[in-house]
Write a structure and sequence with these properties.
The protein is an alpha+beta fold. Helices cover 40% and strands 20% of the residues. The structure holds one RNA strand.
Amino acid sequence: MIDLEQLRNNPQQFVDLLSRRGSFDMQPILTLDRQLREMITQRSQLQSRSNVISKTVGESIKAGIPPQSPEIKALRDEASQIKTAIAEFEPQEKQINAELEQLLLTIPNLPSPSTPVGTSEDENVEVRRWGDQYIPAGENILPHWEIGEQLGILNFERSVKIAQSRFVTLLGAGAALERALIQFMLDRHIQAGYLEVMPPFLVNSESLTATGQLPKFSEESFKCGADDLWLIPTAEVPVTNLYQDQVLTAEELPIYHCAYTPCFRREAGSYGRDTRGLIRLHQFNKVELVKLVQPETSEQEHQALVENAAGILEALKLPYRIVELCTGDLGFAAAKCYDLEVWLPSAGKYREISSCSNFHDFQARRGKIRFKPSGQKQTQFVHTLNGSGLAVGRTMAAILENYQQPDRTVRLPEVLQPYLNRAVL
RNA sequence: GGAGAGGUGGCCGAGUGGUUGAAGGCGCAGCACUGGAAAUGCUGUUUAGGGGUGACUUUAACGAGGGUUCGAAUCCCUCCCUCUCCGCCA
């Protein structure tokens, strides 16, 4: 959620920044805001008078004045009238408030001033590349879904039968490799200071609204029709919402969490894209990193988070690059975002394997996640950050291709070998 | 699914119609005492919003929403959630 006070006090600066993402009309919001505040002022004054009357009536009765006496009767009548007047205000006020709220929920986050300006992913900025020496030289590398099926560790066909397209079943060493990757990633992140959590995989609408998936992107998540519960599209949702509606102390920050969860996405509107393989599935595993930090530190915390995610790729010796998303490619809730892209030989290009975002106070404001700086009376919103560390299925895809050998076997990255008790698939 | 109990401030826990935003305790902060600390004492300690440059002032909130009343944490209705026991089940 954007900061209404900031918008009110400095609309021009606000609109300028937001215009880097697209065009948004802030005028309706400003108008509703003004109307609402006028109503609140008027209604509060009436309420105040009403409270005085009630108090006087109570005191008078206590002092022995009969409840039916004319002076008390007069006060009661006045209070009744005020009550009627207030009753007229309330529905209007509620309605305006609801409208305002709805509008505010659809405005995306302000991009950070340092986010490169651009209109599409073509204008994303490459930050660095790593691991050129690990890019395999061979020409005829099988795409991961082919080698996976040859090795008998991936099965797509039967998954269609039991679910539908865009699902996979892992068998034997495939299942073991997936599990090993999860374990390996978590081990590293725990070592780096993240506290592991295993949250619910179903969440309510409120949680999805706080992190920004609702109300605008409801068609992206699976909903359990009979309940107000959704399958999580990412661990970001349950883990961030662990702290929803809380006032933390400054000492509790920063909070670092890592979490393994499956993720469920409808992938609406991506028909025909990445229809084969592990790249775009309705269900995939992911290890997620989530941070809640004080605002002054969020920039450096963001950099550190990117390094934690990149550390996994480096440990696995998978070639990757980091790109900074431009304003046009930025996610709804993000102020700044780096994508980690792994080299995928079959595609001959880098593919996203992690997305590391700084949301500033956007999610915290929606989820009411605050903290009290030591010595201060006022609460402040925390900054939230998260990033994949990493998408597990895509990591497996990268291994199956980058580690493929001419004899159609796949070597395992050294760091994984102890987890699987073998060196080759 | 059946039966019961309960939801009050950071926490515990009083409170059944009238200056109760809420006793008491714990915790926390400040001060005093001390060589320093403990113990003790005193003081302070919710959040969100409106108005005001400011001192300040005002409104709301006792699970949520509605109702009764001049006045509701307290009474009535609806809903949600939690806990215990039984049944079923991973």
